[in-house]
Every structure is written in structure tokens, then in C-alpha cells.
Amino acid sequence: MASTIYLALPFALVLLSISLRVSALSLNYYDQTCPKAESIVKNIVRKAMRNDRTVPSALLRMHFHDCFIRGCDASVLLNSTTKNTAEKDGPPNISLHAFYVIDLVKKQVEALCPGVVSCADILAVAARDAVSLSGGPTWNVPKGRKDGRVSIATDTRQLPAPTFNISQLQQSFSQRGLSMDDLVALSGGHTLGFSHCSSFQNRIHNFDATNDVDSSLQPSFAASLRRVCPVHNKVKNAGATMDSSATTFDNMYYKLLVQGKSLFSSDQALLTSTRTKALVSKFASSQQEFEAAFVESMIKMSSITGGQEVRLDCRVVN
Ligand code: HEM
Ligand SMILES: *[C@@H]1O[C@H](CO)[C@@H](O)[C@H](O)[C@H]1NC(C)=O
Ligand SMILES: *[C@@H]1O[C@H](CO)[C@@H](O)[C@H](O)[C@H]1NC(C)=O
Ligand SMILES: *[C@@H]1O[C@H](CO)[C@@H](O)[C@H](O)[C@H]1NC(C)=O
């Protein structure tokens, strides 16, 4: 019995190290093959932000969507074809935009180092730059992702919905190897950007059999959301900013969340379990603790890999 374990253990370790090496990402992945790749991403993101303040939130959300469907393999960037409707044309694509920023980077990087830098890596680095150029933390992004060849509109049903409760959120994250702590930290991405009325409609009209409005919403905040988003909303693209400082990456999201001023049921749900609630309070009182946790969880999320090739055009498979 004992000897079987002695024999099996080194064998298992060899197998484990092989499988890790195959999918492993590294910080210096492009050092020899395209050393300028990251500075190109940063310069283009910085310039794009100057013209369009919605670029950072768009890039961060795009990376999250990418990683949650088939791993971070740039499947979110693929165009639909005559035979296939792609993820970006799937139902919850409502806030996806700024694909042109990735195209601009890809063009410049291809001119310098053809066929080397994956679209999935470009997106991961761009999401990091979006955060740091918005006043958030910076970190080293492990690289070496490959781009996938598949993007299917109906796969977007696998994304967590804003109506999810804590157990549904936990399930969605754990299926991707992410913990409850990751859930709380990554939800802090909701410090940037904008939401359409449809995403929080459930909380402000016809909430349940007894209440028109979700009673966990702070009353005057709920009233302001109802003014912007009436039942028969006729204003195209009506909605609300994710927090009161939506172009700055800070811990305001958590400060407002504890006051009942979050947009989604999925945000509010973070206050319904003891562990997640404690983390929300910690992040609400410490920007530093939030940033450290966000960085750790972003690296985890962005290391879910899945692709096979380095696409030459981020919108079409090779
Ligand atoms: C926990 C599960 C999550 C749910 C249910 C969720 C849901 C949503 C919804 C419904 C919107 C608004 C879409 C619209 O109406 O335009 C949104 C926006 C956004 N989400 Fe999340 N999200 C989640 C996690 C994340 C994560 C992990 C990140 C990144 C770390 C993220 C970053 C963003 C950003 C930046 C926006 C604003 C997009 C923009 O302004 O264009 N979200 N999210
Ligand atoms: C992808 O779709 C966009 C928007 O529909 C279009 O402008 C672009 O030319 C397409 N790119 C490719 C390579 O098909
Ligand atoms: C979202 O999907 C609709 C069709 O479902 C499509 O017309 C629209 O262009 C898509 N938006 C983006 C940003 O790709
Ligand atoms: C969350 O929603 C699911 C599906 O509606 C339900 O089965 C579950 O009991 C809910 N969990 C909590 C904690 O409310």
C-alpha cells in the first residue's frame, strides 16, 4: 500500500507539472518576440480614453465577458459570419463597445511583430491599463494566452445575470475556479461605467408580489432611478452610472453598496452572506485592501485560458 503511494506520487507530480507547463502564462512571454507590445497597448488605450471616456469601462467588461465564456480566448472579439452568430451579437451585449481600440492595437502590433501577440493577451493587458489609467492599481499581467476559434451567441447565457442571488453567483464563479472572495473583489469592477435601465428594471418596478420597489434600495436612490427609468421608458440608452465616480477606479462602489445604493440585485446579493458582507465592509473602508484583492482576483480570472492560435485579425479566425 505504502509503496504504491511512493511510486505513484512522483508520477503524479510529473503529470501535474506537464499539464501546468502547457497552459502556463508568464510575465516575460513577449520579452524576446515583441518587447514593445505592452507599451503599444498602453499608448493606444490612453489616447482612446482622451476621445471617449467610456473606453476603460468597456475594455474591463469586455475582458470579463471574454474570460467567462470559453476562457480568456478573445472569443468575444469575433465577428458573426454568414453561418454563425457570434457572442458579441448575443442578447446581453448591450454595453459591449470599443472593439475598435483592440483593432488599433492589433494593427500596430502586427506591423511590428507579425503573428506573435494574441488578441486575448491584448485584451487582458488593455483591461489592466483601463483600470490603472482610471486611477486604479496596476499589476504585471501574465501573458501567453491563445485565441479561440469559436464564438457562439447563445453561450452568453452562461454569463451571470444582474438578477442573480448569492448562490447563483457563487455557482457561476466556482464553475470557473473563482471563489466568493473573488466574486466580491471583481464586482468592484462596477466602480466604472454605465448601466442601461433594463439591467436594474427588476428592482424598481414590479419587484415582487408585495413591493413595487426592492426594499433593500435606499428610498431616495430608488426614486431617482425610477425617474430616469420609468415603466414605459421612451429614452433610448437611458440608465445610470455604476457609481457616483464612474470614470474613477476607486472603492466608491462598496461605499454606496452598504448604503443601499447599488444598481443590480447581484450587487445587493453580496450583502446576503456573512462572509461576502464582511468583505464588502472591508473594501468600503479601505481602498488599499480593495485594490490588493482586486489585483489578485483579476490575475486569477484572466488566467482562465482556452484558445489555440494567434489570430491575425482579432475579428476573424485564421
Ligand atoms: C458578478 C457578476 C456580474 C454581473 C451579474 C454583472 C452584470 C453587469 C450588467 C448587467 C452591467 C450593465 C450592462 C448594461 O446595462 O449596459 C454591467 C456593467 C459592467 N460590468 Fe458587470 N457584472 C458582473 C461582474 C463584473 C466583473 C467581474 C467585471 C470586471 C471585473 C464587471 C465589469 C463591468 C463594467 C466595467 C461595467 C460597465 C460597462 C460599461 O460602462 O460599458 N462586471 N455588469
Ligand atoms: C466586423 O464587424 C464590424 C461591425 O459590423 C465591421 O465594421 C468590420 O468590418 C468587420 N470586420 C471583419 C474583419 O469582418
Ligand atoms: C448586439 O446584438 C445586436 C443583435 O442582437 C446587434 O445588432 C448589435 O450590433 C450588437 N452590438 C454589438 C456592440 O456588437
Ligand atoms: C437563488 O435562486 C435560485 C433560483 O431561483 C433558488 O433556487 C435559490 O433558493 C435562491 N437562493 C437564495 C440564497 O436565495
UniProtKB/TrEMBL annotation:
Pfam families tied to this protein: peroxidase
Q: Which residues form the signal peptide?
A: 1-24
Name the predominant localization: secreted
* E.C. numbers: 1.11.1.7
What InterPro entries would the database entry show? Answer: Haem_peroxidase, Haem_peroxidase_sf, Peroxidase_pln, Peroxidases_heam-ligand_BS, Secretory_peroxidase
* Co-factor remark: Binds 2 calcium ions per subunit. Binds 1 heme b (iron(II)-protoporphyrin IX) group per subunit.
List cofactor names only.
Ca(2+); heme b
Where is heme b annotated to bind? 190
Location of the protein in the cell: Secreted
**CDD domains linked:** secretory_peroxidase
Site annotation Transition state stabilizer: residues: 61
Disulfide partners:
34-113, 67-72, 119-314, 197-229
Which parts of the sequence bind Ca(2+) 1?
66, 71, 73, 75, 87
Plant heme peroxidase family profile domain residues are: 24-318
Q: What Gene Ontology molecular function terms does this protein carry?
A: heme binding; lactoperoxidase activity; metal ion binding
Name the Gene Ontology biological process terms.
hydrogen peroxide catabolic process; response to oxidative stress
Active site residues per record = 65 (proton acceptor)
Q: Which reaction does it catalyse?
A: 2 a phenolic donor + H2O2 = 2 a phenolic radical donor + 2 H2O
In this chain, substrate is annotated as bound at 160
Which keywords does UniProt give here? Answer: Calcium, Disulfide bond, Glycoprotein, Heme, Hydrogen peroxide, Iron, Metal-binding, Oxidoreductase, Peroxidase, Secreted, Signal
Q: Which family does it belong to?
A: Belongs to the peroxidase family. Classical plant (class III) peroxidase subfamily. Belongs to the peroxidase family. Ascorbate peroxidase subfamily.
In UniProt terms, what function does this protein have?
A: Removal of H(2)O(2), oxidation of toxic reductants, biosynthesis and degradation of lignin, suberization, auxin catabolism, response to environmental stresses such as wounding, pathogen attack and oxidative stress. These functions might be dependent on each isozyme/isoform in each plant tissue.
Its name, as the record gives it, is Peroxidase
